[in-house]
């Protein structure tokens, strides 16, 4: 049995300290890719359930250690250069997210008198529901001593209805979670020891929050919601975290844009996105805020003025952004199961790591008329009908994308209005010829038509080039099926009008013979 095609974008990836490798959570393992070639060079295998996070231990360029978490209830420590499993910690709960504040601290750890390394983990506890006052609260934020390989007893920072993703500031001073319409933020003690209490605050919003990010140097937090709005809270924690030396508590009238008893000086709302904001991140100097979502556009906001500019469309919804130790390199994860390696700050795509893509959705009326896959048995390739009117050629043997064919030129449209459908894809037995069928839907009863296309594979590579286009191959009827002859240059197309046509593929010309059923 051949297995492959795992998701590359279920969790954000992580760069190695030399930025030469990208560690990607792929189902029950972590795949290590070269950033120079975008090819897989190693794999960390040992988890028995979905890997939910990977964190590289900071240090010099030679250090190649990382932590991983999984729904199998373990946290594992690896040397990914070998690769080799060094240590495994069983926390007995599925782990959905983890942050390690000391890895973000500005000052390095004291190597002469090293302290224990603590992590904060988001887990799901369904075992002791009967003993809980509120049985619906299964999500918990716990503290784990990674050095001593055990949970810190008696420390439960939060209980929520479900496990929430933890977001940490770039300096490691604050971390938090979103819980429906509010943010819960904790301050990490300067010396993160077992018995030091953790102070927290909350910020309220009118809509369900989808993501948030901390400013790198100031007490500013930005949060996006499911409607596309972005909320900027400035001066958060002045009342909670500053203590006696902090500012006096302000009246609500003196805190414009801050709802309820939220601990912030002011709040500002920005709105450009038409749907849910998928991720936010601040530039390293804090002058700009980047946002992205369903539109496939990266929006760059000037923090002081709210002015914005846009980076070109990538063609699919964007999910996460990760900086690397090399300031000229970053990665962006996309909803089409692809990770782009970017040259910064121009955002030029240097390399792409592509997993197998899901078939594009189609309207209910056309679901029975669409063929999602076709196979090239000789080369072990699968052709997948994907979004944005593309055909992806994916190697089942190598478990990677070989090429992609743009069947028709169409920009990514975030709206739900469908104007064209890529119905069918078929491959000849030797994989040298591909056939596609696309349908342009009529608008107000005008302009609909069907197109049949034949594509030739190049002799030196796996790229296909268009050789023949046939408009309305079966008059006004749609194409229901296409099949190639196993040994001859011949293909048959059938229609919903009750006829089929045989095409002879000779010197890039097609001759049709009609036969009516």
From TrEMBL:
Keywords: Nucleus, Repeat, Ribosome biogenesis, rRNA processing, WD repeat
Primary localization class, coarse: nucleus
Record domain WD repeat-containing protein 75 second beta-propeller: where: 390-502
Gene3D superfamilies: YVTN repeat-like/Quinoprotein amine dehydrogenase (2.130.10.10)
Cellular localization per UniProt: Nucleus, Nucleolus
UniProt-listed SMART domains: WD40
Pfam families reported in the protein's UniProt record: Beta-prop_WDR75_1st, Beta-prop_WDR75_2nd
Top-level taxon of the source organism: Eukaryota
Natural source organism: Artemisia annua (Sweet wormwood)
Signal peptide range: none
PANTHER family per UniProt: TRANSDUCIN FAMILY PROTEIN / WD-40 REPEAT FAMILY PROTEIN-RELATED (PTHR45176), TRANSDUCIN FAMILY PROTEIN _ WD-40 REPEAT FAMILY PROTEIN-RELATED (PTHR45176:SF1)
Protein name, per record: WD repeat-containing protein 75 second beta-propeller domain-containing protein
Spans of repeat WD: 44-88, 270-311
């Amino acid at each position: 049995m051949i297995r492959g095609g795992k998701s590359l974008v279920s969790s954000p990836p992580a760069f190695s300290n030399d930025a030469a490798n990208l560690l990607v959570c792929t189902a029950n393992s972590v795949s290590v890719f070269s950033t120079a070639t975008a090819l897989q060079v190693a794999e960390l295998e040992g988890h028995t359930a979905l890997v939910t996070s990977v964190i590289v231990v900071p240090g010099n360029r030679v250090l190649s250690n990382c932590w991983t978490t999984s729904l199998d209830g373990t946290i594992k420590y690896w040397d990914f250069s070998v690769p080799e499993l060094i240590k495994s910690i069983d926390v007995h709960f599925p782990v959905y997210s983890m942050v390690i504040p000391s890895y973000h601290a500005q000052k390095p750890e004291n190597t002469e008198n090293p302290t224990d390394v603590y992590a904060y983990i988001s887990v799901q506890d369904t075992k002791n529901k009967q003993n809980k006052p509120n049985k619906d609260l299964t999500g918990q934020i716990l503290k784990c001593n990674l050095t001593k390989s055990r949970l810190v007893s008696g420390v439960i920072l939060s209980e929520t209805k479900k496990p929430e993703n933890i977001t940490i500031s770039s300096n490691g001073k604050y971390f938090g979670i979103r819980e429906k319409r509010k943010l819960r933020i904790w301050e990490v003690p300067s010396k993160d020891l077992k018995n030091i209490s953790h102070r927290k605050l909350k910020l309220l919003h009118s809509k369900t929050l989808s993501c948030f990010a901390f400013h790198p140097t100031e007490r500013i937090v930005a949060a996006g919601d499911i409607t596309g709005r972005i909320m900027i809270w400035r001066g958060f924690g002045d009342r909670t975290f500053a203590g006696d030396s902090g500012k006096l508590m302000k009246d609500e009238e003196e805190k414009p844009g801050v709802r309820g008893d939220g601990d912030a000086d002011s709040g500002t709302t920005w709105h450009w996105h038409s749907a849910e904001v998928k991720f936010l991140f601040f530039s390293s100097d804090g002058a700009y805020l980047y946002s992205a979502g369903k539109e496939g556009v990266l929006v760059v906001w000037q923090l002081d003025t709210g002015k914005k500019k846009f980076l070109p469309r990538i063609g699919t919804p964007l999910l996460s952004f990760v900086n690397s130790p090399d300031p000229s390199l970053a990665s962006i994860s996309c909803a089409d199961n692809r990770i782009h390696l970017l040259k910064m700050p121009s955002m030029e795509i240097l390399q792409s790591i592509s997993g197998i893509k899901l078939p594009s959705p189609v309207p209910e009326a056309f679901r029975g008329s669409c063929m999602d896959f076709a196979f090239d048995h000789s080369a072990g390739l699968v052709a997948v009908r994907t979004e944005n009117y593309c055909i992806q050629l994916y190697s089942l043997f190598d478990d990677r994308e070989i090429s992609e064919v743009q069947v028709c030129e169409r920009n990514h449209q975030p709206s739900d209005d469908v104007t064209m459908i890529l119905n069918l894809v078929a491959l000849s037995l030797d994989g040298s010829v591909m056939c596609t069928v696309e349908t342009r839907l009529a608008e107000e009863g005008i302009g609909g038509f069907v197109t049949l296309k034949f594509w030739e594979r190049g002799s030196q590579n796996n790229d296909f080039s268009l050789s023949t286009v046939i408009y309305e191959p079966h008059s006004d009827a749609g194409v229901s099926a296409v099949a190639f002859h196993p040994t001859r240059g011949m293909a048959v197309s059938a229609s919903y009008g009750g006829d089929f046509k045989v095409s002879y593929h000779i010197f890039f010309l097609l001759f049709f013979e009609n036969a009516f059923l």
